[in-house]
Amino acid sequence: MAKILKPYREVKFGEILSEEIEARNMSADKLSEESGLPLDTVNELIDSKIRVSSDIAKALHKALDLSEEFWINLDANCQSTSVRYSQAPVRYIKEM
Asked: Which domain holds residue 25?
């Protein structure tokens, strides 16, 4: 019997951001307040509906003390993974 596999799991930017703010015992409201970003923008980031601009990266750096480059690169990597994941062929492997 063959199993159907995808090569990896798609990881979205908002998922990682949510884990980061949860680890810091923050809420979306608190992130909005500390970053200066509108709450709607924070929620769109958490839902992975918008990309990270340089202004957003600066605001996240201010609130979470992770570099602007970190946020820009994370967003780019998540987007790249998303494209590869959606285009990846399904692989079939034989069970041992």
From this structure: 2-94
pLDDT band at 85 (very low <50, low <70, confident <90, very high): low
Domain of 24: which CATH number?
1.10.260.40
User: Dihedrals φ, ψ of 85, to 5°?
Assistant: -65, -45
Neighbouring residues of 84: CB distance < 8 A, sequence distance ≥ 6: none
pTM (2 decimals)?
A: 0.78
Total domain count, the chain: 1
Residue 76: count other Cβ atoms within 10 Å of its Cβ.
13
